[in-house]
Amino acid sequence: MKVTETKLAGCFIIAPSKFEDSRGYFFESFNEAKFQEAIGANTHFVQDNQSFSRRGVLRGLHAQAGEHAQAKLVRVLQGEVLDVAVDVRPGSETFGQHVAIQLSDRNMLQLYIPRGFLHGFVVLSKTAEFFYKCDNYYHKASEAGIRFDDPALRIDWLLPSADIIISEKDNELPLFSEVYTDKA
Ligand SMILES: Cc1cn([C@H]2C[C@H](O)[C@@H](COP(=O)(O)OP(=O)(O)O[C@H]3O[C@@H](C)C(=O)[C@@H](O)[C@H]3O)O2)c(=O)[nH]c1=O
């Protein structure tokens, strides 16, 4: 397993070690001991989520607030997505910055997103199955989010805006400046 820290401290790209033979392949998609050692934190996951979406579907940018914040370990089971994590940790040197990485069933990359980030993804392939682990349970009342297309975030979602499909809920999300008033 190769683990690379992104430009956002605490946010890691994980490339599992894959074993191929005449039957196909094998890899450990998650190993808690190796994972915790690699990221230097004892994140403990309690909920797994899976979603299916067609090309152009964009889910995000989402987080849960306060004590219900979630760290996530995300990957793609089928297809390809552009996955985006935005640093909104108070006082972070990279506050407001994001990482964007293509995750697919071919590159098998995973992204570890600590608590204190907004997260979203858009489907680049015809369809995609997306899978992620969370270190805190879903808590509807704590759901928060920011519009994916807020120009202040300068995220290139790689698809023409006419191709992007979002939920009614995501369409009503506020702008970054409406939520995060102080940068400190
Ligand atoms: C996220 C979530 C949703 N739900 C329900 C609520 C709703 O009826 C239905 C669909 O929910 P949503 O529209 O919020 O699903 P979705 O837009 O896929 O939300 C997800 O987006 C990605 C980007 C994330 O990072 C996740 O944390 C989560 O916010 O599933 C749960 O029961 N448990 C959960 O953990």
TrEMBL record:
Gene3D superfamilies: Jelly Rolls (2.60.120.10). SUPFAM superfamilies: RmlC-like cupins. GO terms for biological process: dTDP-rhamnose biosynthetic process; polysaccharide biosynthetic process. It holds the Pfam family dTDP_sugar_isom. It catalyses: dTDP-4-dehydro-6-deoxy-alpha-D-glucose = dTDP-4-dehydro-beta-L-rhamnose. GO terms for molecular function: dTDP-4-dehydrorhamnose 3,5-epimerase activity. One of its GO terms (cellular component) is cytosol. The record marks 138 as: Participates in a stacking interaction with the thymidine ring of dTDP-4-oxo-6-deoxyglucose. Its EC number is 5.1.3.13. The keyword Isomerase applies. Pathway: Carbohydrate biosynthesis; dTDP-L-rhamnose biosynthesis. The active site is at residues 62, 132. Homodimer. Belongs to the dTDP-4-dehydrorhamnose 3,5-epimerase family. This is dTDP-4-dehydrorhamnose 3,5-epimerase.
